[in-house]
Amino acid sequence: MDESKVLHLGMLRAVLAILQWWGFNVTVIIMNKWIFQKLDFKFPLTVSCIHFVCSTVGAFVAIKFLKIKPLIEVKYQDRWRRIFPMSFVFCINIVLGNVSLRYIPVSFMQTIKSFTPATTVILQWLVWKKIFEWRIWASLVPIVGGILLTSITELSFNGLGFCAALLGCLATSTKTILAESLLHGYKFDSINTVYYMAPYATMILAIPAMLIEGAGVMNWIYTHQSIYSSLVIIFSSGILAFCLNFSIFYVIHSTTAVTFNVAGNMKVAVAVLVSWLIFRNPISAMNAFGCAVTLLGCTFYGYVRHLLSQQAAVPGMPRTPRTPRGRMEMIPIVNNKQDKA
């Protein structure tokens, strides 16, 4: 096969990988919002727990029976010393995402989640005393400015949903930073990550979900119409959330870091557009402009990080003090997203 055909096949594979990633991600977000808003199943802890259970079963089947990925062996003591703390932060991150989705529109929630690069840099600077070049700080200005403009002009603003989304950004940043130290020595892919973390997350969340939302869930089951079709939708969202991890694994191996960054920000724009077409939440012109500024800022931030990583990789060039950041750090463990709602 000549070089041009190989190049075209590679481009086709990258486009298909990005499209299926967008499809799974946007579908999971829209289904979760539909569950909270249209099915009146207003129980984010229970929805998160169902997702964790589906991910636990799915990862077990994928690794043990289908042999899609080889199992990465983790020492027993490391499971509690390293995996469990990561699972706790992972659990908090997913729950906060679903809580925010319960109270605010998808468009607003996704825009706030784009604040994650800023919270990551600020946390590393304040807590871990990392030093960043001025270009990194400059790239955060449009992100912060866009978030502020979007928040001020949001017509469906809700304080609880806003705080949950913002705390979700902090949880995502904490997970990313902790992964550098806690998972050092283990080269996890997205499937093995879910295989180890989802069972712990289920264990952490199951009792709080039953205590806080159990009575409400039982009342919903007895009073809701079309209960069986509604349960199918709820559990399908959990299955699709697990499938999202396969799409992430596929897109990582089919694209470059720059393409992944740009595609990730375009995915947010797609999610915002699709959610508006379905739910018709009011969006002002200034609100849309703030969202666009935020996404452009995130793209610029990713581009700056890529330039600095390329500079550090060139022999003889001075290495700029920075925090190492590979593509895997940009990936949500289950959705996204910062991505998973």
Automatic annotation (TrEMBL):
InterPro entries: Sugar_P_trans_dom, TPT_transporter. Residues 14-301 form the Sugar phosphate transporter domain. Keywords: Membrane, Transmembrane, Transmembrane helix. The keyword Membrane applies. It is found in: Membrane. The chain crosses the membrane at residues 12-31, 43-63, 83-101, 134-153, 159-179, 200-221, 227-251, 258-279, 285-304. It holds the Pfam family TPT. GO terms for cellular component: membrane. Its main location: membrane. It is a multi-pass membrane protein. This is Sugar phosphate transporter domain-containing protein.
